[in-house]
Give the backbone structure.
Amino acid sequence: MIAPAAVMIFLFFLMPVVLTAIFAMTNMSTATGISGGVWQVTQGAVNRLKADMPELASGIAEPRFVIDEEGLAALEALKLKAGFTAELRTSHMGEVFPSRREAERVIKALKDRPSTREVKQISDLFNRSVLNTRFETRDELMASLKRLGFTLTPAEQETVAKATYTGWVWTTENFRIIANSPDMAQIFLNTAFYVSVTLLVFNVSYALFLAITTHYMPASTASIFRAIWLLPRITPVVIYVLMWKWLTWDSGFISMFMGQFGYPPKNYLLDSAYNAWFFVILINGFIGASMGMLVFSSAIKAIPQAHFHASEVDGASRWQQVRHIILPQLRWPILFVTCYQTLSLLASFNEILLSTRGGPGKATEVWSLAAYHTALQNYTGNLEYGLGAAMALVLVVVGIVLSLIYLRIFRYDTLISKPLIED
Amino acid sequence: MRILLDKFSKSFGSTKVIEDMDLEVGSGEMLALLGPSGCGKSTTLFAVCGIHRPTAGRILFGDRDVTNLPSQERNVGVVFQSYALYPHMTVEENIGFPLMVKRVAAADIKKQVADIAALVHIEDLLGRRPAQLSGGQQQRVALARALIRRPDVLLLDEPLANLDAKLRLEMRSEIRRLQKETGITAILVTHDQVEAMSMCDRIAIMKSGEIVQIATPSQMYNDPRTSFVASFLGNPPISLLKGKAEQGAFVLGENGLRLPLAALSGIPDGTALSLGVRPEHFGTAGGVPVEGRVVFAETQGRENLYDVVLPDGSVLRSIQPVRDDVKPGDSVRWNLDSASTFVFAEDGQRL
């Protein structure tokens, strides 16, 4: 019965990665939408065209006035003096004016002498500007450019179409942005710092310290200690972080306490980048330590009691027991916790989002939080799904590479070999 | 080095395991603590090596009071039932561990490990890990590790329990050889009477936290103090017949076997007794004829073992040189050597 499991794995594990990879190869954002787009000569599009086709860019940026049949028909429908239509058709048909002023000069000079109001009315009818006009298809855009007197080669048409298209397109631009942006480099360094410090100091070292010290305690005392250290894990994260905020707010405990010594109250959490990191690592470390503690404690329990007795009668001190008996036999749990916690630290940002939101400034912005901000929530409101997905994909790749490195370092193949003792 | 347990008591919480036990093991002697599981023999051993602290009483090594010393400072070598070899270390590291934690120079460790490995015949296994060793090899490694510190005392906790029958025989004599060669004082904890009898100078037989009798193996076999001791030693085990005293004789049932015994003079008539007859004392030799029916016969190669049911339903075991003229169901009339029997009072005390 492999089919149901395969379907589940595909739907819930592979599909998200595949979709992320697909989104990562697009430039989807709030601006492009996720369905198709239209062709529109925006100021942005004009700017994009300036480099390759300066003439065209300046041309389409200006209003254009063309005396054509369409305009004449509309003029007739206005039922002004019939002479206007007749004269424009006979003497000015097909003329293109690069500005309203030039077009109006010609209209003003008509024999029937239109009034100023009429001049304005008539010139509007011949306004053929493409700036800020939406074209549902590419051909409509090209036809209208042609009418304006721009004759474009197919290659040029392609450039114009690309510059004016408002929908999303396939692109690898996201990865170029990630690779080249100094912001991204800073976020990457933040992440490396955050993950390695939290992992080494709390999730592994501190967890080992807790597991080993509680191992040498009487059982009842040990379980009280373990229960206390589990509290951060079992408290709902919003409440847990809120308690940290109470502690660090400018009207919180630390401020009140420091006030006793004459220090003015301040927000210790967001006061400086140094403090923000300090608390972000504590908040995450206290949660992470409990898992390592549980895993290591049970692994130490699984070491036969006789090994402890034997090492004691062999003359080993507590420290030698820890160093030579416990730690070597914890290789597999340490690998597991390191691997698992690396991935979990890389991917989770809820504690940081709830506490500092990546601040102050972008001091505590880590990769996953930045991906979230880029793709799903940011101040400017332009959510760049494609870029965000590309960032998430980088995270997936980094996670896989790190896991493989860990397996190599801890010599996974020796860990899954035969049972260690036969009896 | 002499070991002395003086009024030693140990309880876990409210459970008293051992109370006021006195035990002396002479220097260079090998003593067996023999008893059924739960009798407190391992607890005694763990107290001697310092893993358990006594609740009361003293433990002396020679004249040194070690009662409150942690095991690290006692200089004892212990072979655990599971051997407790460290799975992540090679044989060499395992054996050298007691020296390594004493910060002996690496070259010294190497040399001493080589010496001790030669003593227990595992010179060529030093590079292996415990998982790559057979049970007997693991046993030798554990012995070497226990001996390398030249401990004052060697403690063996059921060291042969995890070995197969053939290896057990081999290691029995091997351990005894090592103990004699090193002249170390040793305590062997076991529930196997054969091990205790074959390996040790003296046996202390224990029951529910008390030493019932302490004697050399042959003394204990030939002169058991209680029916418990008598039934614990000997394979096949002793047969116990329930009967009564009557005019200085042991009487089995109504009109059954009647056995005049010197030990019964002065015992009032009607006292409930049990008679212990070892299988080798019931057979072709002996003075008192006993009739019964063979219900079970088993050949052991050199000897045959028979169960004989007496008319009142009690069973006597007999072990005899191989013969093929008796089959289950046959009625036999064999002789019982009344001088070699033991009579026990109802509470198990020998009369």
Q: What stands out?
A: The interface with chain A takes residues 46, 49-51, 70-72, 74, 76-78, 80-89, 97-98, 100-102, 129-131, 135, 145, 149, 162 of chain B (CB under 8 Å). The mean pLDDT of chain B is 88. Helices of chain B lie at 41-49, 91-100, 106-119, 135-147, 165-182, 193-199, 217-222, 227-232.
